[in-house]
Predict the 3D structure of the following.
Amino acid sequence: MSTTEGPTIELDGEVVAYEPGETLYQIATRARREVPTLCYDPRLEAFGGCRLCVVEVEGIRNPVASCTTQATPGMKVRSSTPALEGHRRTILELVASENRQIEVDPLSGHSSGEFAALARRYELRPGRFAGRKSGASRHDDDNPFILRDYDQCISCYRCVRVCAEREGDYAISVVNRGFATQISTEFGGLLKDSACTFCGQCVQTCPTGALADRKALRAVDLPEPIAKTRSVCTYCGVGCSVDIVTKGERVVGVQPAMDGPANLGALCIKGQFAFDFVQHDDRLKTPLVRRDGELVPASWDEALDRAAAGFRAVVDQHGPEALYAIASGRAPHEASYALQKLMRAGWGLNHIDNCSRA
């Protein structure tokens, strides 16, 4: 991607153009350099905490964090040298020495495998460093959505920043310093007693599984491989893009699409966690009609004939203005489309709403 149009820097001997205001990390990523990082999320303000993304800049004595350093014309940058790679490996081994495990189940969250991927890339020796450990897991937090496994925490603060910058909730923050550093709610309480809305953004940005999707992890022992299917959340009119996580024929979780044009990785509690109805034991598997005051199973033909007869009776007695339809937020978009087509094209009405419109 070499070019000399606009301001340029020299990146690993290649002249690369950039837009004013871009950071060295953004330029390197666009130029397909594999600069590692653990505290970076493109949706958040650059933090520069993990120091993995440091690069060498000619004329600057020490390596600089590429995610917080803006390019200036004529810079000469090296994104990978033996010294930089050694520095990165040492940092990762220090981090690995504290964590209970490196590999975590992919069901933990969208970004949960980032640390493990870097560990494999740099062939870490997890036992190289030993000593005190920080982070205390909150096994007492019995909320059904978010696992707070702080033995896995690396203090990248992505969870704190996404809660503040993207959600504006400020439900979690950083307390103490050094080995006593901890991610906590106000007064160290449970998530349900805090300002947390259980949107799950902290889960999906965590690179180690310290915050994990408790509902998805229920399916860890299912033997089928994990698959993801891109879809759109039906719970309201925003149109958030989601990846439906399945094992075999079973929906086991929902993850926000980080490239979703309407949500950019955000979801509400319903979009993130309210999917159990799909496989619930009480879900109807056949139409029901009322006979002698009791609901009994029926064929689709009988149920549709009954519904059509009911519509006709209402229209004959009261006119089409007496009809009104409410679509379910749990129904597929195709069903909502068919219902509004029935009302608008079939009866000439706009009397239709959706239970999740608000």
Remarks:
- The chain has a mean pLDDT of 93.
- Helices lie at 24-30, 82-98, 114-121, 158-167, 201-205, 269-273, 300-318, 333-346.
- The CA atoms of residues 286 and 323 lie 25 Å apart.
- The two ends are 47 Å apart (CA to CA).
